Structure formats: C-alpha cells, structure tokens
Amino acid sequence: MLYYFFDYLHYDLRIPGTGVFQYISFRAAMAIITSLIISLLLGKKIIRYLQRKQVGEIVRELGLEGQKEKQGTPTMGGLIILAAILIPTILFARLLNVYVIIMIVTTVWLGFIGYVDDYIKVFKKDKAGLAGKFKILGQVGLGIIIGFTLYYNPNVVVKERLPSEKILVQQSSSASVIDDIRAKENVLYAPKAIKSTITTIPFIKDHEFDYAYLIKWIGDDYRRWSWIIFVPMVILIITAVSNGANITDGIDGLATGTSAIIGATLGVLAYVSGNTVFANYLNIMYIPNAGELVVFIAAFVGACVGFLWYNAYPAQVFMGDTGSLALGGIIATFAIAIRKELLIPILCGIFLIENLSVIVQVSYFKYTKKKYGEGRRIFKMSPLHHHYQKLGYHESKIVSRFWIIGIFLAVLTIITLKLR
C-alpha cells in the first residue's frame, strides 16, 4: 500500500525524497526491518496469549533427552511468522504484481491448513490432527492454482537470450561496476517477452530446460499441451517441499534457521533474475517483474530470523504446522516463480535428506518385516535429526551443524549459476 501512496507523492505531488520507494532494494530493507520488529513485538504478545489459553505442545514419548521439558511449550507460533510476512509485504510490495499475489495466496492457503491441523491437535485434543489426506488435498489444490496461474497469466513471461555483439564500454579507474559487467558480456535479450515453460537447470552449459520438450513426441503443436507436464511438476514440488519443512520442524530452531538461509539465497536469485544487467552478466534468463519478489522474500527472512528470537534453544514457542507447512510451500512456490525449482534438491538439501530418511526408514522396516517377520531399522530414529539425538548429540549442536550444511548448500546453489 505504501508503494502506491509514495508513488502518488512522487509523480503527482513531486515531493522530494518520496521517489525512494521506487527502489526494490529500499523496500526490501524496510520489509525485513518491519518483519523483525513485528516478530519481536507481536511474538511476545502471542506467546503470552497462547500461555493464557494453555495452547501447549503435546509431546509424544520418544525417549529423547530434554523431551519432557518441552511438554506444554506454546505451539501455533507460526501465526507470528505469517503476520511478520504478510504485513510488510502488504505495506511495501506492489500488490498488483502477479508474483506477489501468488506468494500471498500461498502463505495464507498453507498457513490456514496448518492452523486447522494445530487447532485439532491443541483444542480438540486429537494428537493425529488434520487427516493426512486432507493436507495433501490442500497442497495439491494450491499446486493446481499456482501451476495454472503461472502457465496462463499473461504477465508471467520471460525474455529469451539472443547472441549479440559485445558492448564496448570505456574502462577507466572510475568505471562503475555495472559498466564493467556490461563490458564483459555478449548476451542480450529479445525486446519482446514471451510465455514459456523454460526453467533453470544446474551444471548444464545452456542452463535452460523446457518442460515442453518432454512431450515433443505429440507433434508440432506440442507446446500447447506443455501444461500436462508443468502443472503436475508444480504440484509435486509444492507438496514435497512443504512436507519436507514440516518434517524438519522437530527440534528448536532447525526448520526456522534453515528456512532463513534458503530464503536469503532465493532473494539473491530473484534479484539477479529480475534485473536485466545482472541476468545478462550471469547469462541466465531475465524474468520481467520478478524483482518485486525480493520484497516478499525479505519479509520472509525477517520473519524467520525474528521468530528464532523465541524459537532458538530452549524454545519459548513452537511454530506448529501453521508455520512449517507455510514455510515449505512459500519456498517451493517462490523457486518455481523465478524458474529455479530444479535447484531445490541442492538448496533444500536439509529438507530433502529429512524426507528421505523417513521414506527409507519406513520402507526398509516394512520390507524386512515382510521378509524376516521382524522389522529392522537403518536409523535409530527418523527423521534424521532424531537419529543424531539418539546418538547422544545435543539438539543445539545438531541444529548448528545442520545450519552450516545449509549455508554450504546455499553457496553451492548460487555458484551453479556459473558452474556449467
């Protein structure tokens, strides 16, 4: 809202200084600051409210050290995260931008599903919460909406890279960074943006892959049917990453800190993808209007970091499914919007390994029970973070080491833009 207000002050009333809201970098900075303030101030009030209502976590007996101390810790703290994301986004982002609308819908949609699950667990005293089939149905529904919106909306476009002569810029000791970047590149973009299902693929020279190629066998008009591949891929990614974040949320600060690292990385990718100069320099596709997503992801990072104030060990509040489902869904939708979803296995490696540890553990247990009459386990417990707890590692050490791995994966994700 403030963007449009200051836009009016700048262009219609010509008030000096109001043009600063035209800069994405400024609005992103304001979003992250506002998000942090909301997390810190609102967080304390929400925690007190949850304590008064006795909205405490029901902890299952898993034989883990420090588990009993968590009993009764307020949950549904994801409400803090949702507020700290949505309020700054509404204040500082361009709300008519299709990408911003998609992210707001994702946040509210999955936040609501998580809230219903937490409500059933806490207020209805049903440990099972919302039935898994309804969670999946909600995630699939969101995937369908996001998939078709990205596929059909006329404002979701890319600009193709075209070979061109090198731009010659006079180099001098006072030359700007942008001039230096332009001088080094020989790739420009077509003047007209187009609808396309191309995406970024890591470690490949041309760096792009079109989902439509998978159905090329249909005939010359195969591109008309590319949604058959694109939409199910969107559904799969949103469901997988959302559940991955949900599974990772098992010890204090793990999912929150990991999500902040992933969010910061996605912010970098969104900025360079939505900026002609930097996209040209990195030789990646340019996505018009995607730069506005930087404002949203800044609020996302601020919300995660602010929530850590209360969620770091020993946690004063748990995010519950209200937060974890939303965090994973936001990350997935954001990556798809900036055409970087194929980088998710690297960037979200923590979520991936946590998911796989559960799948492998359950599958192996069922297989050995059927074959030998007794189920056997690969890990002492799944998800993976519980395995390390069983080995005797303190949860704060596990979280710190997972964060370090997350930072390593984040850096690797960014340098894939040049490693091909």
Could you give a quick summary of the protein structure above?
The protein has 420 residues and is mainly α.
E-strand count: 4
Average pLDDT over all residues: 87
Strands of the widest sheet, in order across it, are 1-2
Task: Name the quaternary structure.
Answer: single chain
Spell the H/E element sequence.
HHHHHEHEEEHHHHHHHHH
- Class from secondary-structure proportions: mainly alpha
Tell me the β content: under 5%
Distance between the termini: 41 Å
Gyration radius, rounded = 23 Å
Q: What composes the largest sheet?
A: 2 strands, antiparallel
Specify the overall morphology. Answer: globular
Low-confidence stretches: 165-175, 180-186
Report the total helices: 15
Query: Helicity range of the residues?
Result: 55-70%
Describe the model:
There is one protein chain. This protein has helices spanning 2-11, 24-52, 78-92, 98-122, 132-152, 177-184, 227-248, 254-273, 276-282, 293-311, 320-337, 344-347, 349-372, 384-390, 395-415, and strands spanning 161-163, 187-189, 198-200, 208-210. The chain has 420 residues and is mostly helical. The chain has one domain (2-158, 193-415). A two-stranded antiparallel ribbon has the order 1-2. 43% of the residues are buried.
